[in-house]
Specification:
This protein is mainly β. Helices cover 0% and strands 52% of the residues. Strand 4 and strand 5 form a beta hairpin.
Length: 116
Amino acid sequence: QVQLVESGGGLVQPGGSLRLSCAASGFSFSSYAMSWYRQAPGKERELVATINSAGSTTTYLDSVKGRFTISRDNAKNTVYLQMNSLKPEDTAVYYCKAYSWNAVHWGQGTQVTVSS
């Protein structure tokens, strides 16, 4: 059974940091590229960051460049999103996605709230 389980969300003050994790099981994790998306209330889901299967190439949404870092540990079947200098506009539900040429898998999401 394919599973992607996000964790690490929560309430943090502006300027703070959080590290999200997404643990994968039930498929060949090291063969999949991974992404983090987010969706704020009343807004469309947007792509935040991507990383290729080997972990050698990453891309970022312009508004998070220099603040967020995506990484992966293929030995632990886990992808991470380190989020620093958080802003209120980063508040959203964060989802991880695994994708290959013929399959896409989504996690259930984790809430991140940035507020004083």
